[in-house]
Specification:
Order of helices and strands: HEHHEHEHEEHEHEHEHEEHHH
Structural class: alpha/beta
Strand content: 15-25%
CATH architecture of the largest domain: 3-Layer(aba) Sandwich
Shape: elongated
Helix content: 40-55%
CATH superfamily of the largest domain: Periplasmic binding protein-like II
Number of strands: 10
CATH topology of the largest domain: D-Maltodextrin-Binding Protein, domain 2
Largest sheet: 5 strands, mixed
């Protein structure tokens, strides 16, 4: 009789424990499901936000007209272009501009091939290409380059330069003709000094000067200051009233005719150069620091 009485109680106790365990398990499962649902919701929300932000950013980029502007070498005459790019003046004109160094003839070739839309370089290269049938055209001209007759520190007079070597750009280049004019103005005749041609831009001519292979070069002094190369100035083209044209902004006639609005907006970007005080050396130095 005692066993019969205890078994139901024992059975009921086990049954209660089982029901309680199952309830706890169900509660735990429900909590895990809710946790997973919350995590999934958070992930979905994040994806929606990211996707929306990406679409907005992409839309902003698509609104800008992409252009590539090349320039022949790194020198102070490029300040207006650098500041225009770095301070966002191109972007204000609705342009996503990529500004890249493309030396000499490579720049005009890239322009003709359509790899560049604009090029800031010597107009002589453009004239040479145009004479061979290309459709290059100059849109505007930058400020004149401050050409000087720069010699090794040991050379103090023009007389000391006789019999020495001077490095020039290729025959027909702007700096070549400026070099001939300066040498003539200081009283040196053909044969008084040997002219050594080094193409590829001003940096290559300065490198030849630094190596000591040549005694003189006609170029601007900014590269010498930048590289801390000792030098002495014998003559200044501007002080001698030698007319010097600055680098020109070049493009192709086909691009100009098909994209007049882009051309005008590109020109308006460097139009902010008035804020740079281009005619002032002090302002030019300040612009470089930007």
């Amino acid at each position: 009789m005692i066993c019969l009485v205890l078994r139901p109680r024992y059975t009921n106790t086990i049954s209660c424990l089982t029901r309680s365990t199952r309830a706890d398990h169900r509660n735990a499962s429900a909590q895990q499901r809710k946790k997973k649902e919350r995590m999934l919701s958070a992930i979905i929300f994040s994806l929606i936000v990211f996707s929306t932000a990406s679409q907005v950013f992409s839309a902003e980029i698509q609104k800008l007209d992409r252009i590539r502007i090349g320039y022949s070498s790194i020198s102070s005459s490029r300040i207006a272009l650098w500041v225009t790019s770095d301070m966002g003046f191109f972007k204000k004109q609705g342009l996503a501009a990529e500004v890249i160094v493309t030396p000499g003839i490579q720049g005009t070739q890239a322009l003709i091939a359509g790899e560049l839309q604009f090029y800031l370089g010597g107009v002589d290269s453009a004239a040479l290409a145009a004479s061979r049938g290309s459709d290059l055209v100059a849109l505007a001209t930058a400020e004149p380059i401050e050409y000087k007759l720069i010699v090794q520190p040991g050379i103090k007079t023009v007389k000391d330069l006789k019999g020495k070597k001077a490095v020039v750009d290729r025959v027909g280049g702007t700096s070549y003709y400026v070099s001939l004019q300066i040498l003539e103005k200081v009283g040196l005749k053909p044969g008084d000094i040997d002219l050594v041609q080094v193409g590829g831009g001003g940096n290559q001519r300065v490198a030849a000067f630094k190596s000591g292979v040549v005694s003189a070069v006609v170029t601007a002094t900014d590269r010498f200051e930048q590289l801390k190369i000792p030098y002495h100035v014998l003559a200044d083209a501007m002080e001698m009233d030698i007319k010097v044209m600055g680098n020109s902004y070049l493009t192709t006639r086909s691009f100009r005719d098909q994209n007049k609005d882009v051309v005008l907006r590109t020109y308006e970007g460097p139009g902010a150069r008035e804020t740079l005080g281009q005619g002032s050396k002090k302002s030019r130095t300040g612009s470089q620091n930007l």
